[in-house]
Amino acid sequence: MPFHFISLSRKLQSRQHHLCPGLVHCHHADGEGDGEEQEKNERVEWPVSPPYAGICLAYFASGFNTGAVDHEADGSTNSGIFQINSRKWCKNLNPNVPNLCQMYCSDLLNPNLKDTVICAMKITQDPQGLGSWEAWRHHCQGKDLSDWVDGCEL
Fold this sequence. Notes:
Layout: E1 4-5, H1 11-14, H2 19-24, H3 36-42, E2 44-45, H4 53-62, E3 69-71, E4 77-79, E5 84-85, H5 114-124, H6 134-140
Helix pairs in contact: 4-6
Pfam families: Lys
Protein name: Sperm acrosome membrane-associated protein 3
Organism: Ovis ammon polii
């Protein structure tokens, strides 16, 4: 079964959630947004092996905080759950950046992860792949990541 990211629930940040629904398949406890049609419209496949690598990356990049912003010494920012950098991937205050994801960095702060995951997928297609993220290189790369989804139905 393919691995999917669906819009991230606010419960993810409260840590009173079960990790599996939080990133693998978001289930809303209040019943809102459960519609199969909405789910199909928001489903985005993560084309990285293992596919649940994004969970490890999101944890170590931002602590699952979709609103995280980190300011770098060079004036660039890292934004959102994956801490995507404005030097190359998104548009911030500097109009002279490549903006390869064709989005504003502030859009990466949206709890609906669809656009953020699409941008992250573009980054994984870069020659550095997941190695573009320091958090990945230091905490996830070469590790057994199956524990991140232990007990989940994938």
